[in-house]
Automatic annotation (TrEMBL):
It comes from Thermacetogenium phaeum (strain ATCC BAA-254 / DSM 26808 / PB). The keyword Protease does not apply. InterPro entries: AAA+_ATPase, AAA_lid_NorR, GAF-like_dom_sf, Homeodomain-like_sf, HTH_Fis, P-loop_NTPase, PAS, PAS-like_dom_sf. Residues 216-261 form the PAS domain. This is Sigma54 specific transcriptional regulator. GO terms for biological process: regulation of DNA-templated transcription. SMART domains: AAA.
Length: 651
């Protein structure tokens, strides 16, 4: 009656105390959509393409919910019912029920092909209200908009995704006899639908995650299959959990029985691998013979650990395998190093380093030769790489250390040789560093150590931009930018006639002075923090803080070995540090001793070292018997314990 008055006489259902406000609002919307509750033939049908898209977009929901619904349908102990699954817009994705109840559906299906519980199609219904209000809804008889449902009771619950968004709804509709009893009788149906929808929500999430995992797994498999490296993943107990095809090939495994086997079966009991896995150290390019049966071959092995999100416990590890022969080829082909660093990698905020970087950036863009001047470990090679990467990143970067190369080989290394040029030479001949650096940069480190007799040859190559291999007859043009570096005073060497003045001016077209660390203010601390982080990242440890006493030492020490020395000191401290903070005592002894009394550094250092040495020797001699060791050393046992602790000598 109320519906007829609303529909035909425009009575406001919101004013009717028997109709709840959500239903009244929905009636108004339904009427505005033009749905006639008394005439089902006049209903609009959803568009076929919309339906197709709904089925396509909700494949996972259908796949998850339908088997679930089918499994639990027998528990629905009522006679006539229609069960419906919809998407978030009310489009019916699945329905089921007994013959009798389907009479209505079939009747509608004759007039329209597709079903939707959208208000614009069938007006107010339990599905759409559960979707709109995100709550379970039971709608009794006349509350349904269509009069055809006036003897139906419908229970519906929303299905949510992990973000709490509605992705669909599930409903059960039944015919009831006595309206007065209906709510009591059918209350359990609402409970059933609600728990079913919740179960589908959970199952949907599991299915979605499984699907994601499967896709990720397949993508990973695909990328691993084209990678040159072999990969083996282990769980926390060293059991193999995954092995890539390449790794199987490398290890000579032909079936997948490797899964769940202990890694030692294929990698043997090498101590480096064992220690790395036990202690959580990363391993880089360890050359090792590994293999199964008679398949022993040499590979470069690297190990990375897999940590939990908080980086506290290790969950497993990945072993990377690379063929040694391939590595050899790469090294031979490059004949030098690659430039990894760019200007952004040069850490430091001091005025001094910023000025050097800014000048280097300007000169990087010209092709002129550059001389980098700075103490050992100040970052000269870092600058050279950054300059190279800013000017010609695609060209080769070839580094030559003039001090470490044997004097008699420098010439052939730089200029190359033809086959048979001298005894012991490669039959096919070899290109020199100049040729290898063609189109890029040749970094001549420690140029002050270039033998004086070779300097004129180098000068000629720089002037003429062509090289002739030893034993060769023709010139090879080379387009190479030279960046030379020195920690020596070249002008002084010129005065001593150990360096040619003309070569100096050829190399030092532009000079960049790189300041020592002690002149870079707060940079030592900034760099120390950076090295703590990079070291911890490499070894998979949570980065400790740098304590106030250690910070004081770091900022006052004079760092004769500059950044390289600082980096080594920090690596040392990271390994020594047991807790969450690096203390001054974790730093290498020579640094702490200097800090304690700079003027007596030498004596203090040697006494401390002598004492530490003596204790270590006594402990070794007595096979760690502290009583005997203390006696030999002439000190009390308590003092010995204290010193063992101070010097961090492990018992
Ligand atoms: N500003 C910086 N930021 C980060 N790392 C740096 C910096 N300067 C130097 N390093 C690091 O310090 C180490 C020494 O640097 P590099 O080899 O470039 O010094 P160098 O002056 O060429 O030394 P040498 O004269 O002994 O050859 C390298 O590991 C380098 O990456």
């Amino acid at each position: 009656m109320a519906k007829r008055r609303f529909f035909e006489e425009d009575e406001d259902p919101r004013k009717n105390p028997d109709i709840c406000p959500e239903v009244a609002e929905s009636w108004i919307r339904s009427k505005n959509y033009g749905v006639n509750p008394f005439d089902i033939k006049s209903q609009k049908a959803p568009d076929e393409n919309v339906i197709k898209k709904a089925f396509h977009d909700n494949k996972l929901l259908i796949q998850t919910a339908v088997p679930f619904i089918k499994k639990f349908m027998p528990f629905l102990t009522i006679s006539d019912y229609i069960l419906g699954l919809t998407d978030r817009y009310g489009t019916v994705l699945y329905n089921a029920g007994n013959e009798n109840a389907f009479k209505y559906i079939n009747q509608r299906k004759r007039s329209i092909k597709f079903l939707s519980a959208g208000e614009e199609f069938i007006g107010t219904n339990a599905n759409i209200l559960s979707i709109i209000h995100k709550i379970p809804v039971q709608l009794i008889g006349p509350n349904n908009y269509l009069v055809i449902h006036e003897h139906h009771i419908a229970s519906a619950a929303p299905i949510l995704n992990s973000n709490g968004e509605v992705i669909g709804s599930l409903s059960v509709m039944q015919d009831y006899g006595d309206l007065n009893n209906s709510q009591k009788i059918y209350a359990h149906t609402l409970g059933w639908v609600t728990s079913m929808a919740e179960a589908i929500t959970k199952q949907y999430e599991i299915q979605r995650k499984t699907l994601q995992l499967e896709t990720a797994y397949k993508t990973l498999e695909k990328s691993l299959s084209v990678a040159e490296q072999g990969f083996v993943t282990l769980d926390g107990n060293g059991m193999i959990t995954h092995i890539s095809k390449k790794a199987m090939e490398m290890l000579g495994i032909t079936d997948t029985h490797a899964i769940n086997q202990h890694y030692t079966k294929y990698f043997g009991v090498d101590a480096s691998i064992r220690d790395a896995l036990l202690n959580g150290y990363n391993v880089h390019d360890l050359e090792l013979s590994v293999g199964y049966d008679s398949h022993d071959k040499k590979y470069l092995i690297s190990i990375d650990h897999i940590w939990d999100d908080k980086k506290v416990s290790r969950q497993g590890a990945v072993i990377y395998m690379t063929k040694v022969s391939r590595m050899d080829k790469i090294i031979a082909k490059r004949g030098g190093t690659k430039a990894y660093f760019a200007f952004d990698d040069i850490i430091g905020e001091s005025e001094e380093i910023r000025r050097a970087i800014s000048f280097a950036k300007q000169v990087a863009l010209t092709n002129t030769n550059i001389l980098l001047i700075g103490e050992s470990g100040t970052g000269k090679e870092l600058f050279a790489q950054a300059i190279h990467n800013s000017y010609c990143p695609d060209g080769p970067f070839v580094a030559v250390n003039c001090a470490s190369m044997p004097r008699n080989l420098i010439e052939s290394e730089l200029f190359g040789y033809e086959g048979g040029a001298f005894t012991g030479a490669d039959r096919k001949g070899r290109p020199g560093k100049f040729e290898l650096a063609n189109g890029g940069t040749l970094f001549l480190d420690e140029i002050g150590d270039m033998p004086i007799e070779l300097q004129p040859v180098l000068l000629r190559v720089l002037e003429e931009r062509q090289v002739m291999r030893i034993g060769g007859t023709k010139y090879i043009p080379v387009n190479v930018r030279i960046i030379a570096a020195t920690n020596k005073d070249l002008l002084e060497l010129i005065r001593k006639r150990q360096f040619r003045e003309d070569l100096y001016y050829r190399l030092a077209v532009l000079k960049i002075e790189i300041p020592p660390l002690r002149q870079r203010g707060n940079d030592a601390l900034i760099l120390a923090k950076y090295f703590v982080e990079t070291t911890c990242q490499k070894i998979g440890k949570k980065p400790p803080e740098i304590g106030a006493d250690a910070r004081k030492v770091i900022s006052t020490y004079h760092w004769p070995g500059n950044i390289r020395q600082l980096e080594n000191a920090i690596v040392h401290a990271v390994y020594m540090c047991n807790g969450k903070t690096i203390t001054a005592n974790d730093l290498p002894l020579e640094i702490i001793c200097e800090e304690k009394s700079p003027e007596n550094r030498r004596e203090l250092l040697s006494i401390a070292e002598l004492e530490k040495d003596a204790i270590i020797k006594a402990m070794r001699l007595t096979k760690k018997n502290t009583a005997k060791a203390a006696e030999i050393l002439g000190i009390g046992r308590t003092t010995l314990y204290k010193k063992l602790k101070d010097y961090k000598i492990e018992l």
